[in-house]
Amino acid sequence: MAPKRAVQLSLKTPTHAVCVVGVVTLVDIHSDVPKGANSFGVSGSSGVEVFMAYNRTHVTKPIGKASWPLDTDADLAISVSTASKELKDFEVTVSYFGEQEGTALGHSVLYLTGVDISLDVDTGRTGKVERSQGDKTTWRWGPEGYGAILLVNCDRDNHRSTEPDLTHSQLRSLADLQDMSPMLLSCNGPDKLFDSHKLVLNVSFSDSKRVRVFCARGGNSLSDYKEVLGPQRWSYQVERQPGEQEIRFYVEGLTFPDNDFLGLVSLSVSLVDAGALLEVTLFTDTVAFRVAPWIMTPNTQPPEELYVCSVVDEHGSNEKFLEDMSYLALKASCKLVICPRVENRNDRWIQDEMEFGYIEAPHKSFPVVFDSPRNRGLRDFPYKRILGPDFGYVTREIPSAAPSSLDSFGNLDVSPPVTVGGMEYPLGRILIGSSFPKSGGRQMARVVRNFLKAQQVQAPVELYSDWLAVGHVDEFLTFVPTSDQKGFRLLLASPRACLKLFQEKKEEGYGEAAQFDGLEYKAKRSINEMLADRRLQRDSLHAQRCIDWNRDVLKRELGLVESDIVDIPQLFFLNGSYAEAFFPDMVNMVVLGKYLGIPKPYGPIIDGHCCLEERVRSLLEPLGLRCIFIDDYLSYHELLGEIHCGTNVRRKPFPFKWWNMVP
C-alpha cells in the first residue's frame, strides 16, 4: 500500500481529493482554521468512513461530545468503500467551533472521488488470481506462506521457432500463455478521472532482466498480446479504455535463481496525478513473485522415459545393449527413447550430457532438461531434440576454462527426501563430487555449483570423487526405492564386502573359481589369485578408505544410519593415482522403479551361478527389488563407464509442492 498522505483543507473553497478504495487518507484539519476555534466536528456522506486515529494510551476520546479539541494528538482519517460513479460524488465536511459548541465558526468541504485500484496475482497459491487484502509485497515459504510464483518460460511452444519462448519479446503461441502467471489490474472509477490521472506499471532495472509482462488486449489472436515490461521496458502507461474495470496481464520468468539472483521479483502499479504542474504519485500497489526453482528427481520417483544412445565402435554396435534396455523399459512400463548415431555423433554417455528435472507453479508444471557444459558429441541433443512444447531447457557454460570430467552429470545426483536433525528436506539433497577433502584437484565448475545451490530447495552436499579416474559420484553410490517404511536404501560400492565374500568362497573350497569367467576377451583371475594380489588388495583398500569418508559425510548430511546403507561388492585398481573399477561396477545401475538394470559383473561361477550376482540378489530382492544383470563390458565398462553412465531417466515430479517447505 502507498504511504498515507494528508489533504489540505480550505475555509474559502471546497477541496477535491482522489481516494483509493480501502486506503486511508489523512486530512489536515489545521491547514485553515477560523479565528477563535478550539474544536471541530466531522461528517461524511454515504460510502465514506470517517474516524480519528490516535494512541489510546495517550489520548482520551471526548465523552458526550460530537467534537474533538483542535489541540488533541489525533489525526482525522477517511476512506471510501467503493469506487465513484461520477467525479466528486463523496463529501466530507469539517466544522470548527469556539466556546459555544452549537454555533460553527466555519466549515471546510472536501469532495472525494473514489477509485478502485488493485494489482493482484495468485498470492494464495491456488492456481487462480483472487483479490488479496493481505500482504502482497513480500514472499513467504511454508504451508502457511504466501506469494505468487513464476515459471521460467524455457520451453518452446511454437514448432516454427528454434529457441526457447523466453527469448521472444512477441508472443509466438497462445499455448505459451499457460506457462505464464496471470496478473490482474483492477481500475474502476469515473472515466473522466483518467483524463487527468494515469496508471503506470513499473519494474526495477535489475528485475527487468528477469521478467517479462504481456498485456492482453482485445481478442484471442497473437497480435492482441503485447510486451509492456521486460529487459528493454521498465515502465508502461496502462491504456485503460472507457468503462474498463479490469486489465489482464501475463508474466513470465526469464532466468532461474543463481549466484546473483535470489529468485524474487516485484511489479507495481501507480496511480499518478498528471494534471498538476509536477506529476504526483497518489498510490502504489506492489506484488512479489518468486521464480520457481529447477528441481531434480531421485531414483525413488517413478520413471517415465528411459534414454539411451545407439553407437558403433571397434566391437560393433551396441544393439544387444539396446535390446536389454528395451526389455527393462517394458518391465518397468517406461517409454524407451533411443538417440540415433546421427544425433549423438557416437557419444554414448547420455547421463554425463544432461540431467532431467522440472519446474512447478500452482497453475502449471513441466520437465526441464539441464544441459551440462561437457559439450561433446551429444552437445546439441538436449537443445535440438528435447527442448519443445512443455519441455524446458537450461544450461550453464564455463566462462573461461575447458570443462573437466567432474563437470559431467554422472557427477550429479540427488537423494530421496530425508530429515536431518529435525531439518526436513522433502525434495532430498543434491550430491556432487569434488576434490574435497584433498587440496587442489578437480572440481565441478563453480558456475554449475552456484546454480544448484541457488535453487535452495535441495541444498547440495559435496562428496569426494576425485579419487576416481572419471571422478563421478555414480561410480560409488546410488539410491534404490524399497517397499518398507524407510522407502529407500543407499547403495555403496564396497571393496571390503567383496574381499570378504571372496574369502568366504575360498574357505568353502571355491578358490579356483574365476573372475571374468565367460568373457573370452578377458583373462580369468581365480579367487585365490585375487586374494593373493597385494596390489589389488592395496588399491581396493585405498578405494574403501575414500568410500568410507563419503559414507560418514552421507550419514551426517542425509541423517542416515547403518541400516539405511547396503554394501555392494566391488573391487578397484589404481591406474596411476586414480582408481578404476576392476570388474563392471554394479552400483552404476539404472533404476526403473523396482527393476534394476545392473552391470553384469562376470564374477566367479559357483554351483552354476555368479557369486557376485547371487550376493547382490540376496541383499536387494528382500527389499522388493528385481535385479536384472546386463552385459555392458565391451560397450561401456572397457571405456570407463557403465549402465548408469550410458542411460538417462526422466521421472515423475514430486507430489510435494516446493513452496510448502522452509529451506
Outline the fold blueprint.
Layout: E1 6-8, E2 15-20, E3 25-28, E4 39-44, E5 48-54, E6 68-69, E7 74-80, E8 90-97, E9 104-120, E10 148-150, E11 181-188, H1 193-196, E12 197-203, H2 205-208, E13 211-216, E14 225-229, E15 235-237, E16 246-253, E17 264-273, E18 280-291, E19 295-296, E20 303-309, E21 312-313, E22 316-317, H3 319-331, E23 335-339, H4 341-344, H5 350-353, E24 354-361, E25 364-371, H6 381-386, E26 392-395, E27 412-414, E28 418-420, E29 423-425, E30 430-434, H7 446-454, E31 461-464, E32 477-481, E33 488-494, H8 495-507, E34 514-515, E35 525-526, H9 527-532, H10 534-558, E36 565-569, E37 572-575, E38 578-581, E39 590-592, E40 595-599, E41 605-606, E42 609-610, H11 611-620, E43 626-630, E44 647-651
Parallel strand pairs: 1-3, 2-9, 10-18, 20-23, 25-26, 30-31, 33-36, 40-43
Antiparallel strand pairs: 3-7, 4-6, 4-8, 5-7, 8-9, 9-11, 11-16, 12-15, 12-17, 13-14, 13-16, 17-18, 19-24, 20-44, 21-22, 24-25, 27-30, 28-29, 32-33, 34-35, 37-38, 39-40, 41-42
